[in-house]
Fold this sequence. Notes:
Layout: E1 3-6, H1 29-37, E2 45-48, H2 58-70, E3 74-77, H3 89-98, E4 104-106, E5 111-114, E6 117-122, H4 134-153, E7 158-163, E8 168-169, E9 172-173, H5 175-183, E10 188-191, E11 205-207, E12 210-214, E13 225-228
Helix pairs in contact: 4-5
Amino acid sequence: MALYAIGDLHLSFGTDKPMDVFGGRWENHPQRLQEAFSTLEPEDVTVLCGDLSWGMGLTQAAADFRFVERLPGQKLILKGNHDYWWVTAKKLEAFFESENIRSIRLLHNNCWLYGETALCGTRGWFFEEEKGGEHDRKIMNRELLRLEASLKAAGDREKLCFLHYPPRCGSYVCREVVELLNRYGVRDCYYGHLHGPGQKQAVQGTVEGITYHMVSADYLDFAPLQILP
């Protein structure tokens, strides 16, 4: 059994959104994902850190979910900023049941256990007081509540945190998220969202006691990053 993470699959089997328009790195990326996942075992777990599908609703996203279902192992998914198909947990679980999807679970207001390690997370958000408006502040506050609910659900177990938005990017720091991670003793944080030239702004390594790991699919060359054996 092994634990992996990867973000930003940006699948588009049900809609016309080819990713190779963003450069050769994305050429044939679903096939490359399939090849990379082929080495995983059925009991392995992969956390998918947001932006799974370009579908604007579950109907458009259905083919993308079927693709993910066929990949080996169990998958935990969290919301990204482009996951417009995202609905309530109850509706998603009913959709999975109707599509006979058995290997995908939601990481949303909860945590999952990998052995004795708790897997926590939420989408996150970029928010800067001097630039963000009231709408951004409301979104940020909701994400903080979701993240804390996930961390609380873990109890006193060792915690790994998975986000879509990076808590740090270049000189930017989402201090509210960082403070939550420190308060609950998180030592490793995995995130996606950054692509192309933006990846130069990625913060990786240990800062203020937390080690950051970027797992955007194009950065990982579409092979999930192994975290634990």
